[in-house]
Design a protein that fits this description.
With 233 residues, the chain is an alpha+beta fold. The chain contains 4 helices and 11 strands. The strands form 4 sheets. The protein has a 4-stranded antiparallel sheet with strand order 6-5-4-9. The longest helix is centred in the middle third of the chain and has 15 residues.
Length: 233
């Protein structure tokens, strides 16, 4: 008679339940690389094609990477197609052309009486040409990419059900905070208009060396520096 030995219970990181979304303890930041037109996590490229479901959107003002004092859109999303990991909640940031086109699309869907988050967003890298001075000050032609957005209605609502379950769990919501990516930013969501005006004025006047709220509740930012290629889109 053969005796089957049971394996001991062993868990360090845990595993994602079936038919559920994983919200990592430490946010996975996905970069839409403006120079290569690729999605990237760290030093690993994940191609240029994907479609996504968005779980959360927020507006920020500040600096990230080589880009200073810019309006940003923060997207928490799940990839549905493409090479990016699927079934995992990740975060990315968009600005300038990419953010403007995203806002255009969201407004156009809303105007039809539809909640945009119920559909599938499809970002596409679009190539642009421009000029930028090199280290010696000589202006040279450059190419860069921005995101053009499209949207379609979904046929499978399983991901929406999973997303709703994620957002109803307070522990998951607490993980959807990117302290690293937003350490030099201020969230503009629900911010009084007077404070937004103070923020912009501080940036324009270069009144401070750090993002801060002073004792009067006014905001200040460091003076603007020369922008790199990433500022073009």
């Amino acid at each position: 008679m053969t005796t089957t030995k049971e394996r001991p219970t062993f868990s360090v990181f845990g595993a994602k339940p079936s038919n559920a979304l994983l919200v990592p303890e430490i946010p996975i930041a996905v970069r839409n690389n403006c120079q290569s037109g690729q999605w990237a996590i760290g030093d690993t490229d994940y191609g240029s094609k994907c479609s996504i479901t968005i779980l959360k959107f927020a507006k920020f003002f500040g600096s990230l990477g080589q880009t200073s004092h810019t309006l940003w859109g923060q997207l928490w999303f799940v990839a549905e197609t493409g090479e990016l990991p699927q079934g995992v909640v990740m975060v990315t940031y968009i600005k300038n052309r990419s953010l403007n086109d995203f806002n255009r699309l969201v407004a156009s869907v809303q105007s039809r009486g539809v909640e945009p988050a119920t559909g599938i967003f499809i970002p596409e890298f679009v190539k642009h040409s421009g000029q930028k001075p090199d280290d010696s000050g000589v202006v040279k032609p450059i190419n860069y990419y921005s995101l053009k957005w499209s949207w379609m209605e979904r046929k499978d609502w399983g991901v929406i059900d999973q997303a709703a379950a994620v957002l109803s769990d307070l522990s998951n919501q607490s993980r959807m905070i990117d302290l690293e990516g937003t350490r030099a930013m201020i969230c503009l969501d629900n911010l009084p208009a007077a404070q937004v005006a103070s923020l912009m004025a501080a940036h324009a006047n270069g009144e401070s060396d750090a993002i801060a709220l002073n004792s009067n509740g006014n905001m200040s930012l460091p003076s603007a520096e020369d922008r790199a290629t990433a500022d073009l889109f």
